[in-house]
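Running this now, will post back.
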Amino acid sequence: MDDEGDFKKARGFLLTYSALVLALWYFGADLTQFKLMGNEVRLQHRTDSAWLVLAVLNIYFLARCYQRMPSLGLYLDGPMNDLYDRSLVWVALKFKLRRKALRAQAAERFAKNHDPSRTMQITSYDAITTVQHDVDEAQRRHGDEAPDLHQLSRSSRAEIKISLLYAIYEKNGQPLDYPGGEHLNHSPHALITWAVKAFAIGRGAFITPWFTDHVAPLALGVISTSLALIKWCEMKFSTDTFSASVLLCF
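Update: finished.
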């Protein structure tokens, strides 16, 4: 069975129909008459339910597209996960996350391992995410028993390894040939990780196909269906209100 081909067909139908509904809504189309196979059809009864019919059909195409969605299609794919990781690293370095704690940790370890006459001077900071490598390694060792990336908790998925390098100087100011370093693991607050994910999805919508292939068609279907239902409610209840007002006048 060509699942990918079936999804593309279902997505095509949804996009075409949803775009049509949006166009009809935007231009205020009169749905009391239309052409069918070259013949003009004029609706005589229940004209206020035309938008409801459009909404129901849109729901059908929306459900069909969702049912044909590839497995894990709504989860971030490889390029999107890479973009999310790079965004986490950028935030960690830009906003200097946990640097104070990292410096204190480095100073404490330096005091334990070096002569008091020696001094340290921090030369650089860096940050990386290791979760994708860890997941790949766990799956290599344990197979299907190891969790996939999307099955990890938020804190585990967003964990960052923040590190610093420092130079070591003798009492006379002579630098040693070997540098030192320290690192710690940090999982940013949920507000930060959700903001970073939103940014990555927004940026990824323009540079990777994941959003436009899997998320945008469903979003368009929901929006067009909602507008059709709103239009139906406006026509239905405004008509009922107008009819009641006319009866009261008489």
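Helices lie at 3-26, 50-67, 78-94, 99-113, 131-142, 154-157, 190-207, 210-249. More later if anyone needs it.
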